[in-house]
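Amino acids appear as letters; backbone shape is given numerically. Here is one record.
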Amino acid sequence: MLAVLKPSPAPGFVIGDVPVPEPGPGQVLLKVLATSVCGTDVHLYDWNPWAAARVHPPRVVGHEVCGEVIAWGAGVEGPPLGTRVAVESHLVCGHCDECRRGDFHVCENTRILGVDVDGAFATHLAVPVANAWPVGGGVPADVAAAMEPFGNAVHACSYGELIGRTVVVFGCGPIGCAAIAVARVRGAARVIAVDRNAYRLTLAERMGASAIVRAGDGPADDAIRRAAAGTIDCVLEMSGSPVAVASATRLVRPGGWISLLGIGDGPDVVDLSTDVVMKGLSLYGVAGRRIPATWEQTTAYVRDGVIDVHALITHRFALREIDAAIELMKSGECGKVTLTPE
């Protein structure tokens, strides 16, 4: 089958031909309908220090995917063949302490599609049936493929109350823009979008931002306060920028909260004593999606058309055009980028 491969520990991907996987016990085989490109895929392409320390080539890459169930492995009796599914990319063990208490999203033995096991940039994919989330034929394949990152935004917004609140979103990539839409749906009175990229700030406005702030190299605290025009109740930090993380702790009111999703390349410098402890802030680390709660909420938003996920999908490529898709991602002049097998 056609697949995008990381063949060796070096920059770049190649298009290759690998065997169609056989669904093992407890697995389903999917015909891939659509996938989408994530920042993680860019790290793998560039072979940055994180990728070099984590991934063991050769590896089929990609983890955001929608497919059609075409075969069952031993012990599987559903979903019915022909069912359209989105895929949870984190494969959990089911037996560690975290899994036993229902915290599957922080399983200590998590393996990630396209990182630790072969992934989704291919014509076919075998995954545990528990990771195949039926979405119904009414959900377009490209939207279903984006439900995994969209779920990150839903998870980030779920930590605290948003009704009537003023929210700041740092980082307006696809997940940050999705978080803007989710925050508005959950009742936020005002959402301030902050990013360095003008294209993504335009997308943020399209997704419902009340105001935008163009960030520079230093803190944008004063501009954000002016845009908020009042108390800032919470921050959704999607950028991973150390400057943004520190700003978030200064900006949020005493007793407020911050969801932290972005992962930076360097250490964050935060005045914990003054800006967290003495203000009574709550910091919430967003790891993946809560299973099944986040998927249930995300599916409701998508199926009912509450949030227009299609607005986040700005570019589409064939799988063979992966190099062009990665270069576009690196430019920042895009929202969510979709790949289809042909």
Q: What stands out?
A: The chain has two domains: 2-145+308-340, 152-285.
